[in-house]
Amino acid sequence: MSVESELPDSRKGEELVESSITEIAATTRGRSDRLEIPESVRPIRIDQHQLIVIGLVHVLAFLAFIPWFYSFTGVVMGVASIFLFALMGINIGYHRLLTHRGFSCPKWLEHTLALLGLCMLQGSPARWVAIHRLHHKHADKQPDPHTPSVSAFWGHVGWVFLRNREFYEVGNFEVYARDLLRDPFYARLEREFLWFWIYFLHAVLWLVGGCTIGWCRTGTFAGSIQLGCSLLVWAVFVRTVFVWHSTWAVNSISHLWGYRNYKTTDNSRNNWFVNLLAHGEGWHNNHHAEQVSASHGHLWYEFDLSWWVIRGLECVGLAKNVVRPRCWTAPDSAQQSAPPLP
Ligand SMILES: [Zn+2]
Ligand SMILES: [Zn+2]
User: Fold this and answer.
1) Structural domain range at position 247
2) What is the pLDDT of residues 209-218, one digit of tens each?
3) Is residue 5 situated within a structural domain?
């Protein structure tokens, strides 16, 4: 009897998922230089909540291909909402403020930025911060939760669908996000999926707002419903999917392709394409080299829109203690070509 046939059915499923991941790793990176998936992911278990929610929102985003859901207002709102929720909520709120404390601001503004981040359905602030700090601490080594050194697929989205004990043990949150959980506002968001219901509520508000505008414009029930659904699809579902992949591209593409200004101990890269998608987050090698800096662009041509928004907040007195890079010019290592991938 083969070893495989002795495995229970559940274990066979785990083996199947794991072999799929490692197969992709072998074809994308070469079998000898890849990392194994983190130990905290074993035994392999699908995160069903993540799978269902992320799958469902992707399906709903595809409604954008049906002409009935199109409206000029919906598309404009979809683009504008990327700047509001992704740039302000994720880049500035979750990442540069809550994770790295690259600047300080009044509590009401910090909480507002966190609420905007919640509307991107990337998890609660404490969870997001804990995962990201874990990534920085062990970047491209074990137990980095989403290194593409396992495989490009794993680094982009594979890690999202498997249950990682590091993400669910309260003790880990206390290690990596203790400062956040001391604030009752963030602690409350951990209870009863409150962060998810806030996303749900904001989606309903987009629907109701669109229906109201549609009614004012057309005075008909059909026109009202059409615009409401259009805003829901474009400004919520399409935007959510677009920003998911932009954020995941920072984890995957910016650890695989691009140039390096700094000889960091990880594979982080500066990637202009990711930077276009993620408004400044693509200068990821700069960020790994100086994690607290509120600006990720260090050279004159490394445009970082998120940084200029922080500068604007600083100019009007809403951002203080803004951390700048140690130098705004290329370090000596800038001229060196990037080392080969491990
Ligand atoms: Zn990174
Ligand atoms: Zn970071």
Assistant:
1) 47-256
2) 999 999 999 9
3) no
Which-ligand-closest: CA of 306? 2
**CA 287 to ligand 2 center in whole angstroms:** 7
CA 47 to centroid of ligand 1, rounded, Å: 23
Q: Tell me the whole-structure pTM to 2 decimals.
A: 0.86
- The CA 96 to ligand 2 mean position distance, Å, reads 7
> Has residue 341 been placed in a domain?
no
Section 76-87 average pLDDT = 97
Cα separation of 56 and 334, whole Å?
43
In a domain, 178, yes or no: yes
Total domain count, the chain: 1
Binning pLDDT at 50, 70 and 90, where does residue 30 land?
very low
Domain contains 128: yes
DSSP string for 276-307: HHHTTTTBHHHHHHSTT-S----STT---HHH
Distance 189 CA to ligand 1 centre (A): 26
Amino acid at position 257, single letter: W
Q: Cα–Cα distance between 105 and 97 in angstroms, integer?
A: 9
pLDDT tens figures, 67-78: 999 999 999 999
